[in-house]
Amino acid sequence: MEENFNMVAKTLFGFEDLLADELTQLGALYVKKGTRNVSFSGDKGFMYKCNLGLRTAVKILKPIHSFNVNSEKELYDKLYAMDWSKYLKATGTLAVDATIHSDLFTHSLYIAQKTKDAIVDKFRDTEGVRPNVDLKFPDIKINVHIDRRKCTISLDSSGDSLHKRGYKTATNIAPINEVLAAGLIMLSGWDGQTDFMDPMCGSGTMLIEAAMIACNIPPNLMRKEFAFERWPDWDVELFEKIEESLLKKTRDFHHKIIGFDKAPSAVTKAKENVKNAQLDDFIEIKHEDFFKTQKGGDEKLHMVFNPPYGERLNIDMEEFYANIGDTLKQNYPGTDAWFITSNLDALKHVGLRPSRKIHLFNAKLESRLVKYVMYEGSKKGKYMK
Question: Mean pLDDT score of the chain, rounded to an integer?
Fold first, then answer.
């Protein structure tokens, strides 16, 4: 039996509850929420499972040592004292990143450099050979986290952020992060039991994440590599067994997932990404201007989208957001419409009262995820208070 150990899954602000639920459903032990992270316990196979199967995690870290630190010299000395030969060969490669929340240490790049120095100096002094830095494909990626005086050293089991699912080869201006897209859909409560629409679908991220949620497809099956594949204890048979067990839990989906975009280039890119994700059977993308469309049929519709915020596109935001409200009100009865925006002034021009507002961030932009419920039976736009 593999031994259990502690891990930390990092996530985006506002997704901690979602991630804790995902971990619990996967079978994690001792799940505990933090800020932008959730700690838990599991074995090596479970670490593989988390990297493959979690939708709202951006990293899975495996802490290997923690200590108090009061100076840069003490940091160096304690790192130097660790037995790094358990994790890395003297001829191997490494990369270090640091996250700092401390008044004593303020420069994360400097702390990362100091960590690298301690490790390579130790190898050079003990073995006469030193590892090299490789920022793209290191044998191990080390994460240093300093919170006030407490320093935690972790191995990054993921490597590249887990939002890099592997299906997206074509992007537009301001593409939405895959983890953010999955989290928005999960926060909206969509469960695959109705039709789904993204009326401003860009490169198709929201549609692809919705299809994977509907079919319970593990989000990171298409990743080229995880960092743990370069670790000394990498177990390819165990990994394949975990992959197989996750694939057995996929399910059928009997509704439609529809995307519109008025830019032909976006439609082309979205179709390409959907094809890469092997989800063409579930997703239909049309070249349409949302403001000139209306809902087809009487079935309930669930809409989640990421409209322009005005950060990079030169359009009249007040008019644009007023058009969103008018189109929903007049043409989309029987629809739960959710969208995220950081343009809180433009949001006031939608002309509908949201039934929910959730505080989130899109990258560094403070944003709101808002919900508008458009009732059936009246095109005069009855909507929730």
Answer: 94
